[in-house]
C-alpha cells in the first residue's frame, strides 16, 4: 500500500507536500531552457519534429520533464502541437510575423511612454543594451536575441502596469525566435542596435512622446524587413 504524504506544515504555512513538488518543476525548467536555447540558435530548426524520447536521450533525463518543457514552450509560442504530426519547432511565415508585431506595436509603445513618464531608473535597460553591444560583434545571435528582449523588457517594465507587462512578456520568446531567424536571412542587428540606443536616450531624457514614437517605428521597421525577407524566401 503506498505511503501517504506527510501532513506537516513548515513555519511558512506551506504543506510539506507542496515543497516536494519543486524539484521536478526545476528539472523541467532546465530542460525548457536548454531546448529554448537550441531553438533560438537554430540547432533545432523551424519545423523540426520534437520527439520526447529522442530529446530525453539527448539531455539525459526522463520523458516527464521533456513533456512538461514542451508544454511550456508551446505556451510561449516556440513550438507547435499538431494532432497528426506531433510536436515541432514553430515554422515562421509572414502572417505570423504580422500578427506578432501588430500586437507589439499596439501595446509596447504605450508602455514605454508610461515608463518614461514615471520616476523609475533605466539602468537595467542600459546594462542590457551594453550586453547586446558586445554580442553584436561576436556573431552570437541567440544570445543577442535574448539580450535584446531583456532590453525591451527593462524599458517597458518601468511602466508599472502589470497587465501591459504580462501581455508583452508572453510575446518575448516568440519575438526573440522570429528576430534571430530573420537575422540568419538578413543581418539587421546593427540598425536595430542604433534604434535601441535612440529609444533609450529618449526615455532617459524624459521625452515620453519621442520614446513612444521611436519604439513604434522600431517595431514597424522590423516588421517591414522581416515580411520582405520572408516573402522573398517564399517566392524562390
UniProtKB/TrEMBL annotation:
The keyword Iron does not apply. Keywords: DNA-binding, Transcription, Transcription regulation. Residues 25-92 form the HTH gntR-type domain. Transmembrane segments: none annotated. Pfam families: FCD (PF07729), GntR (PF00392). It comes from the Bacteria. The keyword Flavoprotein does not apply. This is GntR family transcriptional regulator. It comes from Micromonospora maritima.
Amino acid at each position: 500500500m503506498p505511503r501517504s504524504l506527510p501532513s506537516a506544515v513548515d513555519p511558512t504555512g506551506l504543506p510539506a507536500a507542496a515543497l516536494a513538488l519543486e524539484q521536478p518543476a526545476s528539472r523541467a525548467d532546465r530542460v525548457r531552457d536548454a531546448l529554448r536555447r537550441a531553438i533560438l540558435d537554430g540547432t533545432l530548426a523551424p519545423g523540426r519534429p520534437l520527439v520526447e524520447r529522442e530529446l530525453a536521450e539527448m539531455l539525459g533525463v526522463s520523458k516527464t520533464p521533456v513533456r512538461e518543457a514542451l508544454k511550456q514552450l508551446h505556451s510561449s509560442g516556440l513550438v507547435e502541437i499538431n494532432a497528426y504530426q506531433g510536436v515541432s519547432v514553430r515554422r515562421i511565415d509572414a502572417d505570423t510575423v504580422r500578427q506578432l508585431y501588430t500586437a507589439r506595436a499596439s501595446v509596447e509603445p504605450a508602455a514605454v511612454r508610461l515608463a518614461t513618464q514615471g520616476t523609475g531608473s533605466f539602468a537595467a535597460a542600459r546594462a542590457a543594451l551594453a550586453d547586446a553591444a558586445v554580442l553584436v560583434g561576436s556573431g552570437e545571435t541567440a544570445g543577442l536575441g535574448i539580450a535584446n528582449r531583456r532590453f525591451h523588457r527593462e524599458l517597458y517594465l518601468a511602466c508599472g502596469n502589470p497587465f501591459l507587462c504580462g501581455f508583452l512578456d508572453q510575446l518575448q520568446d516568440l519575438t526573440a525566435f522570429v528576430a534571430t531567424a530573420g537575422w540568419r536571412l538578413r543581418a539587421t542587428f546593427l540598425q536595430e542596435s542604433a534604434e535601441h540606443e535612440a529609444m533609450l536616450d529618449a526615455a532617459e531624457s524624459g521625452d515620453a512622446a519621442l520614446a513612444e514614437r521611436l519604439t513604434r517605428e522600431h517595431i514597424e521597421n522590423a516588421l517591414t524587413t522581416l515580411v520582405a525577407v520572408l516573402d522573398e524566401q517564399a517566392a524562390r
